[in-house]
Amino acid sequence: MNEDALRTWIANTLGHSPRDLALFERALTHGSYGPNHYERLEFLGDRVLGLIAGAWLYELFPDEPEGNLSRRLNSIVSRETCAAVGRDIGVATYMRLGKQARDDGAVQSDNVLGDVVEALIGALYIEEGLDAAQAFVRRAWGDRTTGQLQAPRHPKSALQEWAAAHRCKPPVYTTGARTGPHHAPRFTVTVAIPGKAETSAEGSSKQEAETAAAKALLEKLS
After folding, report:
1. What confidence tens digit (pLDDT) does each residue in 31-75 have?
2. CA nearest to 214, candidates 187, 193, 183
3. Which end of the chain, N or C, is more open, meaning fewer C-beta atoms within 10 Å of its C-beta?
């Protein structure tokens, strides 16, 4: 990896010229590449992102109750949203992965991309503090936060409400096969409203697959 190119990308993307480049290299390093990987930084960045997002929502929506704010927060900090941000800012170009992980497609995994984005937030927080991390999050998340006119309903909650409104039995989720390597697993989940309809979906985690299946069944029922 060209250090000058990495420094330029970090400065342009995060709005901060790194003093300790190794810290940001670690944030971009998957465990398959070596022992100095992003996991501890991801742990920190996840908490920093939650604080920034919570404070931002509290400011943006002063009249909303806690339940609506929680639904908005869950959407903002979800693995899928973090991965989408990672794609927007071109994280994949600078990630360091072992050959097998790269061959297995980890560079496009929502889990890996989301973790790297959170690790970068952690590194930015360590070197420049909360204000710098907040500036990056508000810029990178943008309309994903400010453009939501209504608090999003989680597909699983929406499906539960649909079943109740139509006097059906509650949705039943069944986990199927788990495929793929350890660093890029794929889960299959089937959701059914007994006597009505069912559908299946995949995801990089059981939770993601359940969400995708619930969303697909809602679309099928509408």
Report:
1. 999 999 999 999 999 999 999 999 999 999 999 999 889 989 988
2. 193
3. C
C-alpha 78/C-alpha 217 separation (Å) is 21
HSE on the CB side for 47, CA within 13 Å? Answer: 8
- 56, 145 in Cβ contact below 8 A? yes
184 touches 112 (CB < 8 A): yes
Find the radius of gyration of the CA atoms of the chain.
19
Residues recognised as catalytic:
46, 118
| pTM score | 0.77
Tell me how far CA of residue 176 lies from CA of 76, 80, 81, 85, 170, in angstroms. Answer: 28, 21, 25, 29, 19
Question: In sequence order, which residues have a C-beta less than 8 Å from that of residue 153 and are 6 or more positions away?
Answer: 71, 161
Please, are residues 135 and 15 in contact by the beta-carbon 8 Å criterion? Answer: yes
In the numeric block, the tokens 């944030």 are attached to 27
Provide DSSP, 163-193.
HHHTT-PPPEEEEEEEES-TTS-EEEEEEEE
Q: CB 209: neighbour CB atoms within 10 A?
A: 24
Q: Token pair 């908490």 is at which residue?
A: 47
C-alpha pair distances (Å), 212 with each of 107, 151, 166, 178: 21, 19, 21, 15
pLDDT digits (tens, 9 = 90+) for 97-113: 999 888 888 888 888 99
pLDDT at residue 88 above 70?
Answer: yes
* pLDDT value at 1 more than 70: no
- The pair of structure tokens assigned to 152 is 């999003």
